[in-house]
Amino acid sequence: MKLYIAIMMLLFPNLIFNNVVSNIKNTSKIESSKITGVWETKKKDLTVLVSEEKGTYSAKLVAFTCNCVVKTSMDDHKDTKNPDPKCRNNSWTNTKIMWGLKLKKEDVWTNGYVYDLTSGTTYAATVTRLTNDKIEVRGYWGFEFIGKSLYFYRQK
Q: Dihedral angle at the C-alpha atoms of 102, 118, 49, 65, nearest 10 degrees?
């Protein structure tokens, strides 16, 4: 078998090279699409849109269910706990709540941050793709093993 491959490489070097390059490009597209898209919690009370730009992943809050005594619209919820006073009047809707994630190894994105709108606190974040349709977002402060995880499911 090794001899056959060696002969094929000598006879058709461009064919083999082009196939390898094509496979690498296709793998890159598959990797980037693993966590991009719309995700929601199991209770469907929180929906986020994960996107990728130049190898860095982020997420915006798309929708959420309010457990308020008085029913209000999503746009009525403001980022009042934000440490930046200029942002405290911003609506929760379309707020970037996760950013800076980069693919570390297959199915694991690290070195990112997640923002908790309810407290105004930013935590370090890691995302792990558990299955094609399930991811774990882990927020932590200092040590990952002392963090909290949220699980999201790909919206269909």
A: 150
Backbone torsion region of residue 19, taken as left when φ is above 0, otherwise alpha when ψ lies between -120 and 50, otherwise beta: alpha
| Contact (CB, 8 A) for 35 and 109 | yes
Q: Taking the model in full, what pTM does it have?
A: 0.75
Judge residue 125's burial from the number of C-beta atoms within 10 Å of its C-beta, 0-12 exposed, 13-18 middle, 19 or more buried.
Answer: buried
C-alpha span between 143 and 147 (Å, rounded): 7
Q: Answer yes or no: are the C-beta atoms of 50 and 57 closer than 8 Å.
A: yes
Instruction: Write out the two tokens for 127.
Output: 């995302």
Structural contact between residues 144 and 126, judged by C-beta atoms closer than 8 angstroms? yes
What does the buried/exposed string (b/e) look like for 4-19 if buried means 16 or more CB atoms within 10 Å of the residue's CB?
eeeeeeeeeeeeeeee
Of 122, 138, 111, 46, nearest to 84 (Cα)?
122
Give residue-wise pLDDT tens across range 20-75.
334 434 434 445 469 999 999 999 999 999 999 999 999 999 999 877 666 677 77
